[in-house]
């Protein structure tokens, strides 16, 4: 799947461990979709999982009404931990986009999928001095490679979210956009 | 403090404040972690949640805290087997009891 | 106080039950569980003879981890369930584990009535000043001005002093200790268990993940230090002047009185009626 | 098989006697009109027999105490009326969820709310099924004479033990307070179901066995089995789970133990003439008016059939189908605004040309009279 | 009619915003998953607006406090989940009995008992009707999107005021926690029903007027009318009575104000193809799976119709009759063991050769998927 | 204390409401009603500004007879209803009339929480030691060894001291008087009404028809004499030695403390937030 | 109605004011019926009425099963107060038996009914020293004139009821039997 | 006491213990019962339940009790208008207040 052939409806799962900021990422993505005038549903895991276990946020964005609110087969999967990769990768559509953080996801198969494997956490820490922005980087990367929402609305959503962090978040976003533009598929590298 | 990151001999260490609770990180090997019978103090890392309580309240400072927050026996010789760590660990994950 | 080595404790744990347990890192609940088991090990009760009953809350998750006869009941109702258990089988040593919300918000009525009856239950109330399980709403013990998700502007409610409340309700054994004072806790819980009558033990605890965060109380060790520093022995406390008392709270055994126990009283009644002919017997 | 003298007793007393004869040795309650005589009887009787009587601080504590006692091995019961049932709903759901035997008696009075405390009603029939949140089938029995109060209470205790659930006995202010002579059976002739104690080693003990017929050993606290119960969704051992397959198994068990044992659970009385074209479906105290109406009709040469459920829940779908589907008119008199009639319609469909369902409701605290039933029959013909 | 930016919000937040936009100025509650966000929103919002937020000691106190507040003139609400509803049953019955407006939100979670606290369920649908003892009809609405959470909460507040009763809003853990963009309407365009203040002299004021359309002046405490309310059966003035004629009038009023205003109360959505031979009857979150299934089916050239009740109680009997009685198959998917399907059967009669009612149940805490609905259609065909 | 002639009282009664009232001959409930009205007449409150709320019980039948804003609510819940009323319309003077069972058995939790909150309600608890309405079951205040229909062999339960309980729960005004001491009652109720905060007034009462009969306490005058003789002023009581205290109980105002009142605190919070922008206002 | 033509089923209402012992009388009558092997239902008024207001006890006795448990048209009515006479007399069957205490029932109509009007309370006080036995006298009188149960079972029931009062109660019964035997219909006297 | 009955000048009087509460009995006429304005103490017999409290606690013994239990003003002159009867009557049925 590439930007140009964006289908009407995209199901995205952002997954990792509690504390990696994926719920926030899901919210920002959803808000961006909303601002763009698209239909959006966002759901997430609740309960014990959100106190430290695995964590996920699902976003469906579509220009048609969205009926069933849960993502079942993902058009895009962001997996920031090995556990979430292992658990959710099977439900990624064949033509789906996979984005993984190689700091934590060590074992993964290169299939026919669009795979983007980068050490997001490390990049965040190196370039922004803290892993706190990993979520924004991964999200922005996702937006860039899928075009699920436009850059403009992503930016607006990021700004809206926590105005006090707007500046650093925008920096993270820009960093991610650059990474995405410069990205070489690992498939080519490693196969 | 939460904005700092340090490289350690043995791998990437992320400070606790930044670390998702169950995130797999590489840590440096420390003494007396692996062998139950030989250790004056034994830490069961599978259950330990890295809260830091044992380290904070060990009266002899026998315990140290790694950068990822997990406890290790920094000065095994200092342990007086007071069992403070045993009693204050919320996770039944450390014992300084005499064996 | 007998030292109970940790390997002893493990004999009481249900190892197959999803350890590490559900509590957050640094949560005091595990410390209370340890002290409780130590007290029981010290007394030497058989596991078969112990029942642990709880309501709903983080603290009330405790029974699932111990290899006793255990019941995780309904929010606020643990004491009423325990009353039934105790009266039906008085030979059981029945311990109730509850939270500040479970015991004193929704469960307040059962608490005061158990106090009144002086029935031989040992209630260990884990007071973390908050509804932990549901994510941080204020409880009847949340300090004035503290932040909670339902007191976003600082708590304007007054605070229950659970020890005063239970004494007012007629409890015969009332004590307070903290998660920091684990050794004292063990002996207080033991004393509570050995008390023949209703015993109420309030354990001041740290909830670093919810309450601590909402109120910027630092990490778990810091919250433990605060427990250590804020709760002073009753005799010390009483010697403080009004100014010094600010931010200080007494701990220790506040009341320990011998009085007829309910299930025994009931047994005596039954005994005295053995000669009386039943209505269904004609 | 009969004791010497017939004893005149109230329905409430009969319930209480049935309970103790069925082995109830633990009663916790909170007084409420018109059920109080049951509680008072138990307070006199249980201490004499070495059982436990507790008056709790409220109904919530009462249901909690009897479930707790049941966990500790007692056969336990409480009795109340509508307001008490409303308060016990959460506890009743818990008993069903942890599958712990206990019996709850509801002596119905006029509602809603405080209503008409001393007057009879049948307005809690649907509540008996749906009071608690979440899906959990119910067992509820409804006698219609003082003797049946005795008998069905025994049956309720037995069903509770057998199906490991909370069983409800419905009664009403009239039945509870009226007196009839009763010949109590010799206790040797009363069939009592006792809990089967497990004998396997504790390691192999499964607190929730998969067993459709559902008579499996049940350990109690202190028996050496140290099991765990929780109101959370749980696995076969009783430990919390959110695994869909385990939750599904649990929910199916709760459902199937009722739905697969309908034959054992459902009791229905037929009275009058099976070949009649007009039938009455009535329960409890109202069925007595129906019988009187049938007698009067018969005297006038008119045939009528009464179908009376002794088991209200699970509802006697089969019997309704068998005996009522070919009738031209079905009269459903009840002391409420239409609760049994819902079920009749569910089973048979709404009134139509070929079959009329005539509802007779009364909610004033008075009984429906035989004349009113006969009138309904005529008017709607 | 729309505000500038669409706001992404959770169903729970939408309920809370709907409430305050409808004029709710008093909220008392006790936290419980998955309804807590409503309570938390109110705790932030009401003090700012000069309204009252109270966290009570339990759910019983919460329902009591909102009824009390309503008596004193407030528009009041509480929010909870299944266990809380079980505890509120008596209070809900009291509100219905004294005819005092208030709104109760039930964000349903997996049951029975503590069940699956964070997972969605639809197992409290019948409880919404029958939780309290005694006969008292219910009004309950069930949205199926975040926007509808907002809209139907406003409607619930309006209906409570209009019909002077306790109105329930049903939601579920999924709906409560999911987020969708919502364009909140300008408040001028929101139709709010306010209580009519009596203007007649206090001597002539009748607290319970006989008025089928039921929009009559309602005095509050402190307004100078000094009326009396009681949960006992009462006369038109509110004073206790046991006179059968007065009790009957009271009961009829409670019943008729619902049954005679069905048109105003019931809302149903039709989706898909009215001419389809196969229809789905689904509510709330499950209706969304049904819509998705219909879309898929349509893509495969298959016609399907969805009938979705926005008003669950009173049940849309008329709509079921009109739109479903000629279907060859009716699929009733629900997150419980069959609660809506009971009503469908009551209205249409049981499955038979010419009409199949296919029930799809799921009680594992997961949603029913569009595929499962389609599969049920095929399998049972 | 102002004398309020009886004709004044009649102005407060709902004469058309089935007088003579429902209470049995000699029942103290009517005396309490009289004293309550006298206290209000003395203060001079408008009838429109008064609300009387009750639960269920003989005592709780009171509101129907007075021409205030009145609510006869559910058993045990009067205080929770009253809390809603008071918070929704703080200008109302809200009085709760309740029985020993209503207030302290099923309603115990609401009672202690209202004490804790210090919300300005005046609770008049008619303690007749029994559930009168339902015909004589024991209550949490039935004396030890007394007979009740559910304690046919004599009460083995312990007794709540409701004044101690409410003090333990944090009430700021706590008093006890008796139906015999009608003048004192009037001034105590008046003081309770005038107290800005939660006030709990326990009125020891005679139930000659149920409790009196079950316990052979003589007729109504005799029971009134017993009330007169058993309840002594607190100062007198404190001077008694242990022996003399047998069968004697203190009466009077036990606690009367100024402390922030809840509805006012809430109003202050609202006031302080008036500048804050609402979430619904963007 | 007279003893000989006793129908299969008799509905009796005993009415008066709380404290006149009518509930006791109802119980004794019912128990007598039960002892005699007959079917019996007994119901009574509850609530406020039993705390002092009017009071009634209904007994149906029959050798056939009794379905409807409430007495609606009485075969016999005992009215010990004016109020109860006024209230219940209309529901007395035409051929029914009426027994009134002339101490309290001052206004009554002599119809075609079997009417027995006697100052039972006064008789009780004069002959037995206390009005406490009024109920037993009225009941026994009723039994004697209607034959609803046999004397034997009435006696047995009286004895069973409160053995400690058996003696005085039996005395009262005998007194009533005598009164019944000697009774002159007031109809004859007064018409 | 409950076994005694006395004949009174004006009719049959039954002692309270024997008397059903609302039983109609004939009673002797007493002073100051009928005229509200003239009476120093007025008793409203419609509401009075004959509990005897007013009689028992009238400090001057101004009140008497008839054989059926109902109070009457035996010694009107003794009334000091202390209003004890007003306050202790549970039924608002007597007033000794000065008019
Ligand atoms: C009837 C009912 N109401 C509300 C809840 C939701 N609930 C679960 S735990 C809890 C509070 C727990 O607080 P506390 O007892 O202090 O325990 P903690 O989690 O702090 O240990 C609440 C409100 C429930 N489960 N049942
Ligand atoms: C939920 C509920 N449970 C029980 C009852 C029955 N009930 C009514 S009043 C009462 C006790 C009243 O005792 P108390 O409060 O002391 O009042 P009293 O009648 O003695 O004045 C009881 C148990 C009820 N009405 N509602
Ligand atoms: S036993 Fe005592 S000294 Fe040794 S490590 Fe533990 S706390 Fe430190
Ligand atoms: S106290 Fe226990 S859980 Fe905490 S860091 Fe030490 S060993 Fe780990
Ligand atoms: S939320 Fe608080 S109380 Fe609950 S487990 Fe976490 S730290 Fe402990
Ligand atoms: S039963 Fe007791 S409390 Fe109730 S009205 Fe009669 S005397 Fe008063
Ligand atoms: S006012 Fe005083 S003196 Fe006069 S009658 Fe009454 S109590 Fe007696
Ligand atoms: S106190 Fe009142 S009710 Fe009692 S006897 Fe005197 S006047 Fe009558
Ligand atoms: Mg807590
Ligand atoms: Mg009482």
Q: What is the count of helical runs of chain C?
A: 12
- Give the count of structural domains of chain A: 1
Morphology call of chain C: globular
Largest sheet of chain C: 8 strands, mixed
Overall morphology of chain A: globular
The beta-strand count of chain C equals 10
The residue ranges of chain A in which pLDDT falls below 50 over 5 or more consecutive positions are 1-5, 187-191
Task: Report the structural category of chain C.
Answer: alpha/beta
Mean pLDDT of chain A: 87
Task: Give the CATH class of chain A.
Answer: Alpha Beta
Q: Give the names of the bound compounds.
A: thiamine diphosphate, iron/sulfur cluster, magnesium ion
**Helicity range of the residues of chain C?**
25-40%
The whole-angstrom Rg of chain C is: 19 Å
Instruction: Please tell me the total number of domains of chain C.
Output: 1
And the CATH topology of chain A? Pyruvate-ferredoxin Oxidoreductase, domain 3
> Strand fraction band of chain A?
15-25%
Taking Cα atoms only, what radius of gyration of chain A do you get, to the nearest Å? 15 Å
Oligomer: heterooctamer
CATH architecture of chain C: 3-Layer(aba) Sandwich
List the topology elements.
The complex is a heterooctamer, with two copies of chain A (191 residues), two copies of chain B (99 residues), two copies of chain C (282 residues) and two copies of chain D (381 residues).
Chain A: E1 9-17, H1 22-35, E2 39-44, E3 54-62, E4 74-79, H2 82-88, E5 92-101, E6 114-118, H3 120-128, H4 134-146, H5 151-161, H6 166-182, H7 186-190
Parallel strand pairs in A: 1-4, 4-5, 5-6
Antiparallel strand pairs in A: 1-3, 2-3
Chain B: E1 6-8, E2 11-13, E3 42-43, H1 53-57, E4 63-65, E5 71-73, H2 84-88, E6 94-95
Antiparallel strand pairs in B: 1-2, 3-6, 4-5
Chain D: E1 7-10, H1 11-21, E2 26-29, H2 36-49, E3 52-55, H3 59-71, E4 76-80, H4 82-98, E5 102-110, E6 116-120, H5 125-130, E7 139-141, H6 146-163, E8 166-172, H7 173-177, E9 179-182, E10 228-230, H8 244-259, H9 262-265, E11 268-272, E12 278-281, H10 284-299, E13 305-309, E14 311-313, H11 317-324, E15 329-334, H12 340-348, E16 356-361, H13 370-379
Parallel strand pairs in D: 2-3, 2-4, 4-5, 5-8, 7-8, 12-13, 12-15, 15-16
Antiparallel strand pairs in D: 1-9, 5-6, 7-14, 11-13
Helix pairs in contact in D: 1-2, 1-6, 3-4, 10-13, 11-12
The structure holds thiamine diphosphate (2 copies), iron/sulfur cluster (6 copies) and magnesium ion (2 copies).
